[in-house]
Amino acid sequence: MKEVSYFPGCSAHGTSEEFDETVKMVMKTMDVEMEEIPDWNCCGATSAHTLSESLSYALPLRNLVLAEKLSNDTMTIPCASCYQRMKATKVHMDENPELAARINTAVVGEGNYEGKVAIKSMLQYCYEDMGLEAIKAKVTNPISGMKLACYYGCLLTRPKAITQFDSPEYPMSMDRIVEALGAKATPFDFKTECCGASFSISDTDIVLQLSGKILEMAKESGAHAIVVACPLCQSNLDMRQHDIEKKYHVKYDLPVFYLTQLMAIAFGFPKAKMMFAKHIIPVDSALAHIGEVIEEPKKPVKGKKAVQAESEVE
Amino acid sequence: MARVGVFVCFCGANIADFVDVPTVVEEAKKIRDVKFAIDYKYMCSDPGQQMIRDAIVQHRLTSIVVAACSPRMHEKTFRKALSDAGMNPYLLECANIREHSSWVHQKDKKGATDKAGDLVRMAVAKSIANEQLHEISVPVTKRALVIGGGIAGIQAALDIADARIPVTLVERSPSIGGRMSQLDETFPTLDCSQCILTPKMVDVASHPYIELIPYSEVIELDGYVGNYKAKIRKKASYVNFKTCTGCGACSQKCPVKVPNEYNMGIDKRKAIYTPFPQAVPNKPVIDAEHCTYLLKGKCGICAKVCEKGSIDYKMVDEVIEREIGAVVVATGYDLWDATPYEEYGVGRYKDIINSLEFERMVSANGPTGGVPVRPSDGKVPKTVVFIKCVGSRDKAKGIEFCSKICCMYTAKHAILLHHKVHDSRAYIFYMDIRAAGKGYEEFVNRAQVETGAVYLRGRVSKIYQKGDKLMVRGEDGQLGQEVEVEADLVVLATAVIPDKGNPALARLLGISYDKYGYLSEAHPKLRPVETAKAGIFLAGCTQAPKDIPETVAQASACAAKVCGLFAGDTIKKDPMVSTVSKEFCSGCQNCVKVCPYQAIVTEDIPLGHGAKEMRTVAKINEGVCQGCGSCVAICRSMAINLAGFTDPQIINEIVAI
Predict the structure, then answer these.
(1) How many beta-carbon pairs under 8 angstroms link A with B?
(2) Chain A residues closer than 8 Å to B376 by CB
(3) Complex ipTM, two decimals?
(4) Strands B136-139 and A32-36: what pairing?
(5) B227-234 and B216-224 strand pairing
(6) In chain B, what residues touch A311 (CB-CB under 8 Å)?
(7) What domains sit in chain B, N to C, each tagged with a CATH number?
(8) Is the pLDDT of residue A307 over 60?
(9) Are B373 and B381 in contact (CB under 8 A)?
(10) Is it the case that residue A314 has pLDDT exceeding 90?
């Protein structure tokens, strides 16, 4: 049994409850004991670092110090934004001891930051610490037949200097995981495009435009559904989908799953426990594809052969 | 009794602004052995040198100290002034009060002046112990080695050979011609690359003074300027060139297909192949890595079809030696692999190609007969996006420098595209248009006006596939907005990088290279074709990205340097070399190990006068010795002496401060 510290973040207790629930199922299946950081606080999200640099470090730093009090060497975070703030704080603190000392004075009541706990997003934890083989071994109900567009958003792999995980432009870790579950990951060029993030509230049109483009490309890739590992991505792509369809006169009907929801299904948990009722776009149409045989399209004429054919004609 | 003259230079304002020159002169006058001291605005100018010459005669000076710039700059100038006045030039000492004082202590005039005084005192003290030295003459082997048979190597070899100096031209691939032979037409005149290159290739093969050794590599270089010994490995071609007529039956029948390097892998060649129809020499070679017979002992078709019986599967690599006096390195360039541009989908999309691939497609002798096609479906593209500076000028992706040739060849590509596909349109994303060169700006204008190429100033941020089109999203900086171009084909002008074998070759030759692998010239402005090692010269893109005119000019410059070097029967060399006092040498041979130039060997001498027993001592080849002094420092018996830097000279310097 492995042990890992867990920072749920505010979304997990609200809009992304289903993420939180399924993370727990996945962890249990994979024999990982999660220990929630006691008395954790807000990571600062988008607001803190637009107001004050010190505050944007101090808020996550308190959580980091609290995490160090637990005996686990790794902390995993489901929310991409929380992950980004914590990891950024850790990287900056570790690189700049002077800054670390200064910020530490703000949270000195909790203890001294030592930098001994590794920060990993849920996606990174699944990919690196669990491993594809182990995940594959636990699959009892393969989701083969599903074609999925894996959407990473902007924060899980970027900036590279902070995340130090996967490719910042064309990551493949989530694609590999859904393939391990039996599904087919579609070639999806918009996997790291911006969804509009928190502009959803202040300037919704931007989100409709940007998320609309992501949905369009996901549909074009042939996907039955989108997979995400970020609460805000999920809410923008799922909750705004009807608005987008209305504005651009299109019909996408693309359910947006959390990666862990699909893992839980593949691990044999009943659908009823996935809290699919919280989704705006119904998931049944996508889940109905499970078990289908995907026919590989005939390979188009090879470029080099075509070139040769051409030259022979000449 | 020494009589030293001290000449302190203002160097305009370079020294005078930060060092109080008159004070330095006054300080110099206080030194016991200084009989004359004076300052002047530019000591290196003719009036300045005249002051030195006059003072030598008038004051019967025995050594001279010039306090001015670095000896690397003007030591030779002042030495000449000394010899013009009838004095041994090695009685000169330079006190470097510019680089070592005024330039580095600009905020502390008093301190800089004191330091300049100290530097003068040291130079005076050293000069007193200076001895008369005389230039060394070393014999010279009048044969040049040219490494690389692209346009740079071809031009250098032809120019040297035309001066009736024998040249050995070594080329790694089966044919000379290099990158230029892959090009279609050349900017800014659009003359056909093959038409201007192939006659030169033939000239090389037929020139009585050129020995062409294709399919070979230099594996060792020993010796020193004028007297190098090169070992060349001739790779087994498995074809007897003497009997082969180049009929091509073997290639026709060979069943093995391999990606064709000459066509950038767009089509296939056979395992026994001639790189291209105009190849020189026009003889096939067997690619041992792919030949079924050589790998598995089966097949042998080429041997069966060869009427002359020229196929020889038992041929082995051969090492040959040449004695040469100078080397011209011309190993050329490669294109950077753009895979790190993941946002462009490089490697994922077939219809993103690099500029050499495009060049091959539009070439009349190319794999598509001169018509560009999409690698994915073979269709002729109507909208082509060219992206410049892919890799170049991009710190984040690895290369800071400008690749220099891309602006021009991209303009050329736009014109060629227009010529080949009339209803096409080129979109060119650029950062700047760098068109400095004769007829270059006009050429870019021609591309814009004549072909209607759309120049968009801005970077491309993403390329993605939509249907069978590639959507190129970038910024139009002039409109200040995002643009998306629906492209059929995308051509990346990727960075020009040196041949990947350069670092190994540089180590083999004993010359230096920069962080990108480009070979380093001795001085960026004043010695652009020489390397730091005497007798080794650089031509073409092995030194930095260059276009054809510049490459040819540099190659001819190399030839001039080689001819200059070979003009006499001997080469003059600085006398600052080490000598061994045999009587003190214990024969430990530590000096042999530390010498970076392999200038020290050992010899056996009689143990005593008339004795039969022998003992081993070190012996220094003064032709090879570069005067670095490593052997002097390592010698525990103090048996080695470096002329110009003897122990008394150094000790005098130390005592003076």
Answers:
(1) 61
(2) 300, 303
(3) 0.85
(4) unpaired
(5) antiparallel
(6) 267, 367-369
(7) 4-128 (3.40.50), 144-229+320-332+499-565 (3.50.50.60), 249-305 (no CATH), 335-497 (3.50.50.60), 578-656 (3.30.70.20)
(8) no
(9) yes
(10) no
